[in-house]
């Protein structure tokens, strides 16, 4: 029997769903299906992107990336030029081989001073030029008990030479004096004698140094390599004919 409270319900169907189904047209069905499809596609894209980001390679920091680039460049250069070596420094130039020749132009002895006028020839025996040459000298008196070594520093400047070419020579001239108060007289019997020593120092570019010593005296008739001492018991005046001979003071 029909219910007094509302319409009859046949076969258990709900009046709501029956009305909903009756209101759906084909156009609405298609629109609803498209909306559902778009939602599913969006969800699938989000899931795929999240998985890709999770498995992606982590970012490198700026210092790490820069170090990697430098290492890569260095490795490439080594592969391209395996035999390249660092350039060796240029070798230091060899010191020039210089010869010194001393000529006594004139000499004189007064009551207070011994004076020499000289001419010094500097010859370059090397195959390369000698440059920036500074020459100095000093006049001393030989002593009988050693202490005749050339002085380490000091002396009177002779002059400067910018350049002496290979196998060429230059000449410097000047005058040196020695007070007789600094002379240590040597005696041969009753005769007081004086042996002048002239020391010459040559400095060239590169810090190269050359020192030569010469003994000055009257030439010996017995040997061209020997000279006689100067006598101090004769009247003051000129001393003609003096010669200079190179001497090795280490063996003197």
Structural class: alpha+beta
Quote the average pLDDT: 80
Strand content: 35-45%
Number of beta strands: 13
Radius of gyration (CA) equals 55 Å
> Which stretches are low in confidence, meaning pLDDT under 50 for 5 or more residues running?
1-10
The DSSP helix count reads 3
Overall shape: rod-shaped
Ends apart, CA distance between termini: 161 Å
Topology order in helix (H) and strand (E) letters:
HHHEEEEEEEEEEEEE
Q: Mind describing the biggest β-sheet?
A: 6 strands, antiparallel
Name the helicity range.
10-25%
What is the compact description of this entry?
The protein has 252 residues and is an alpha+beta fold. It has helices spanning 15-23, 26-55, 62-80, and strands at 98-109, 113-124, 130-141, 156-164, 169-179, 186-188, 191-194, 196-204, 208-219, 227-228, 230-231, 237-238, 243-247.
Walk me through what this model shows.
The protein has 252 residues and is of the alpha+beta class. Helix content is 23%, strand content 38%. Strands 3, 4, 8, 9, 10 and 13 form a 6-stranded antiparallel sheet that branches. The protein has a 4-stranded antiparallel sheet with strand order 5-2-1-12, with no helix packed on it. A 3-stranded antiparallel sheet has the order 6-7-11, with no helix packed on it. A hairpin with a 7-residue loop joins strand 9 (208-219) and strand 10. The radius of gyration is 55 Å and the shape is rod-shaped. Residues 1-10 have low confidence and may be disordered.
């Amino acid at each position: 029997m029909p219910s007094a409270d509302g319409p009859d319900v046949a076969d258990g169907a709900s009046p709501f769903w029956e009305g909903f189904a009756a209101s759906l047209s084909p156009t609405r069905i298609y629109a609803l299906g498209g909306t559902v499809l778009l939602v599913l596609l969006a969800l699938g894209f989000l899931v795929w992107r999240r998985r890709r980001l999770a498995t992606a390679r982590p970012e490198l920091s700026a210092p790490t990336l820069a170090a990697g680039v430098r290492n890569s460049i260095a490795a490439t250069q080594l592969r391209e030029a395996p035999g390249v070596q660092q350039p060796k420094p240029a070798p230091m130039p060899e010191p020039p081989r210089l010869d010194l020749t001393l000529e006594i132009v004139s000499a004189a002895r007064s009551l207070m001073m011994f004076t020499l006028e000289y001419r010094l020839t500097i010859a370059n025996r090397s195959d390369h030029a000698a440059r920036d040459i500074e020459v100095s000298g000093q006049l001393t008196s030989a002593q009988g008990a050693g202490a005749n070594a050339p002085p380490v520093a000091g002396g009177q400047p002779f002059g400067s030479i910018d350049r002496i070419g290979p196998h060429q020579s230059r000449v410097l001239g000047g005058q040196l004096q020695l007070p007789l108060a600094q002379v240590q007289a040597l005696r041969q019997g009753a005769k007081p004698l004086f042996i002048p020593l002239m020391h010459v120092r040559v400095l060239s570019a590169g810090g190269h140094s050359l020192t030569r010593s010469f003994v000055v005296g009257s030439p010996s008739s017995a040997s061209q390599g020997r000279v006689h001492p100067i006598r101090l018991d004769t009247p003051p005046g000129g001393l003609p004919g003096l010669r200079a001979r190179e001497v090795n003071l280490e063996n003197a």
